Amino acid sequence: xxxxxxxxxxxxxxxxxxxxxxxxxxxxxxxxxxxxxxxxxxxxxxxxxxxxxxxxxxxxxxxxxxxxxxxxxxxxxxxxxxxxxxxxxxxxxxxxxxxxxxxxxxxxxxxxxxxxxxxxxxxxxxxxxxxxxxxxxxxxxxxxxxxxxxxxxxxxxxxxxxxxxxxxxxxxxxxxxxxxxxxxxxxxxxxxxxxxxxxxxxxxxxxxxxxxxxxxxxxxxxxxxxxxxxxxxxxxxxxxxxxxxxxxxxxxxxxxxxxxxxxxxxxxxxxxxxxxxxxxxxxxxxxxxxxxxxxxxxxxxxxxxxxxxxxxxxxxxxxxxxxxxxxxxxxxxxxxxxxxxxxxxxxxxxxxxxxxxxxxxxxxxxxxxxxxxxxxxxxxxxxxxxxxxxxxxxxxxxxxxxxxxxxxxxxxxxxxx
Length: 417
Prior knowledge:
Layout: E1 12-16, H1 30-39, H2 42-47, E2 54-59, E3 66-72, H3 73-76, E4 79-83, E5 90-93, H4 106-109, H5 113-116, H6 126-139, H7 147-163, E6 171-175, H8 185-198, E7 207-214, E8 217-226, E9 229-235, H9 243-252, E10 257-261, H10 276-289, H11 293-302, E11 307-308, E12 316-319, H12 335-338, H13 343-349, E13 366-369, E14 374-377, H14 379-397, H15 400-409
Parallel strand pairs: 6-7, 9-10, 10-12
Antiparallel strand pairs: 1-2, 2-3, 4-5, 4-13, 7-8, 8-9, 11-12, 13-14
């Protein structure tokens, strides 16, 4: 019996030709070679109308050769969703990618100024509440989520975590404006935190999370008070420049330690142009569960594991993929990124609840794209639907007072903790 298992993206190949299931494409039978040769001739193309399909081939773990599967474009179209949890890749269902948005305007996609800059504040009556709820719910259907969607999604996660009695999420949702960094929402939140730290109201060991909006892009910040000073972990899934944001953190807290996700060997975790909000929410959720995260980072920094880019003796450390909380990698969009991490991290990425032992088995949302010849993890697509559904349900349950509390406290205004 052919034993197949996908460990890396290089285990998947594509070949055009008539191959039998389980047949090696590198060492095909004489009959297969003749048939594929004939298909390339004028007689095969014109007289016999031979049109060989593109065939999916996966490495046989026993022989090391790529063998043909039963999945071809002739049967299943451009995309196939594959189950990687067994010894054989098998078709689960046809995968329909999100509809193309290239002909839509920025506003229709949700990344235009009207959506990005708008935010609901407290409402005064039931009619305003109903209108606000509908507008926010409609926003979850767009590609780009603004502070309204993120606030509701964040508070839905906070409430769910509290009910389950898990590690708490203390979340804020703020706007960062690089043109006016000292007066933007993020600056006001940080000033409020500084004031509470200076007056002793922000205690040692306090942990909090911030989703930061910069234009249409989102970045995650996890933080913990250690030795009387904040330690920040800035996590940008697309590895976009965060120097201005970090500059604001260090301006407010000159003695702070700042860790940034920065790995030049794996590019980025996010490859599309619109999922940053979902990555941010997921990363904040994952990091908040990792109760020893900052202690581990401090140990590695002490061992000089990380690059320190502050040449004036500051503490601004670049953290590579290897030291991320493992759960942060479960919905990244490229399998080739996973190929570059070591086996120890791959094992940590596995899902303990499902008793998986290999990292690729934890990635259940894998799509094979025949046209581009690669495998992709589309977990973020499923995550978007899940977050939007739970957040909308939470939104619909809010009373006027509860809604106003969310919209007031989301950026730190009023009571911080």
